[in-house]
């Protein structure tokens, strides 16, 4: 009897240690691709139909949703905190410098949430809806597909300070970009692959003015083209838009990297990836091999989606994405 009790005790310890692992392993075990297969079986089709309608109406929306996911994950993890609206008693992330007057697509996420709540009330988090919508946006614009891991819960708080400090600025140097991504567990190769998201979407004149007027590592004809819609004087035309990818702004492909090789990166931070530094070879590889870019991008998106999600009993399942319950 004593020996049996000892064996049971030892087995209990082994099982406990196996379940504990390290924090990352626990998180990865809790996020799965089939988390809602029983509790909300039509989730993926519901999300996709709403995203498709929005992207068909305005292709730029796909880039906006993808950017929302990046900016969410880089601030205390992929927890839907960027979706929380400011109130008289709460300051969120939407008016942080990287997001103010530029973060878009909140209405699409709200529309998805309304449809999902009608089908599966109180089940699916806004954080997961955003992760799925980001994938669908890429696919609908011609990019690669991947299985999105879900099971995240929603944050009850947000951090404007962390948004200001954690999200890479368009003026970032290569070393700053590497550090920013490394801080959230992403490698230099992940960083370059994820930067390829700039194959879609647009940027404001205020973000590329200095580059097109003052920098020398830029194609002259490209600089002249961008100057036409971006006056030199600060405060004049600051919000004028230009495509991040001059060749195919509404198609998710590898032409962003071809642009960098030709010194036609729109943002300073873009061209830093191909400017005589350690990432030149990665950029060249992606410019020549679209399938290599696609596979690395999907792997990096899955990895980014694993950044510090709230799981189990942490956080909540918001009823409305813009406010806590």
Low-confidence stretches: 6-29
| Morphology call | globular
Strand adjacency order, main sheet: 1-2
Strand content: under 5%
Q: From the alpha carbons, calculate the radius of gyration and give it in angstroms.
A: 21 Å
Work out the oligomeric state of the chains in this entry: single chain
Biggest sheet layout: 2 strands, antiparallel
The overall average pLDDT, rounded, is 92
Estimated helix fraction: 40-55%
Category from helices, strands and their pairing: mainly alpha
Give the ordered list of helices and strands: HHHHHHHHHEHHEHHHH
Distance between the termini: 52 Å
- How many helices? 15
Would you mind describing this structure in some detail?
By secondary structure, the chain is mainly alpha-helical. The chain is 50% helix and 2% strand. It has 15 helices and 2 strands. Strands 1-2 form a two-stranded antiparallel ribbon. Helix 3 runs antiparallel to helix 5, helix 10 packs across helix 11 and helix 12 packs across helix 14. 43% of the residues are buried.
């Amino acid at each position: 009897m004593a020996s049996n009790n000892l064996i049971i005790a030892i087995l209990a310890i082994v099982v406990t240690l196996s379940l504990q692992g390290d924090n990352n392993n626990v998180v990865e075990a809790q996020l799965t691709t089939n988390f809602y297969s029983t509790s909300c079986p039509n989730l993926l089709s519901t999300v996709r139909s709403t995203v498709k309608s929005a992207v068909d109406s305005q292709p730029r929306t796909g880039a906006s949703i993808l950017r929302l996911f990046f900016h969410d994950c880089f601030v205390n993890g992929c927890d839907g905190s960027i979706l929380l609206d400011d109130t008289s008693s709460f300051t969120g992330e939407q008016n942080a410098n990287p997001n103010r007057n530029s973060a878009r697509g909140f209405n699409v996420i709200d529309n998805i949430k309304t449809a999902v709540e009608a089908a599966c009330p109180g089940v699916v988090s806004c954080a997961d809806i955003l992760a799925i919508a980001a994938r669908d946006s890429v696919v609908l614009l011609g990019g690669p597909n991947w299985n999105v891991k879900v099971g995240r819960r929603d944050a009850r708080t947000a951090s404007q300070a962390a948004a200001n400090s954690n999200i890479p600025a368009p003026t970032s140097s290569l070393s700053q970009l590497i550090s920013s991504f490394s801080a959230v567990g992403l490698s230099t190769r992940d960083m370059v692959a994820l930067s390829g998201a700039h194959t879609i979407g647009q940027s404001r004149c205020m973000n590329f003015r200095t580059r097109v007027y003052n920098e020398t590592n830029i194609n002259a004809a490209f600089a002249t083209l961008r100057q036409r819609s971006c006056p030199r004087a600060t405060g004049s035309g600051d919000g004028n838009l230009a495509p991040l990818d001059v060749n195919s702004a509404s198609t998710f492909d590898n032409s962003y990297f071809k642009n960098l090789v030709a010194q036609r990166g729109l943002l300073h931070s873009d061209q830093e990836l191909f400017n005589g530094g350690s990432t030149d070879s990665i950029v060249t590889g992606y410019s020549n091999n679209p399938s290599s870019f696609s596979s690395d991008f999907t792997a990096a998106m899955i990895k980014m989606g694993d950044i510090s999600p709230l799981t189990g009993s942490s956080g909540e399942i918001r009823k409305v994405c813009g406010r806590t319950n």
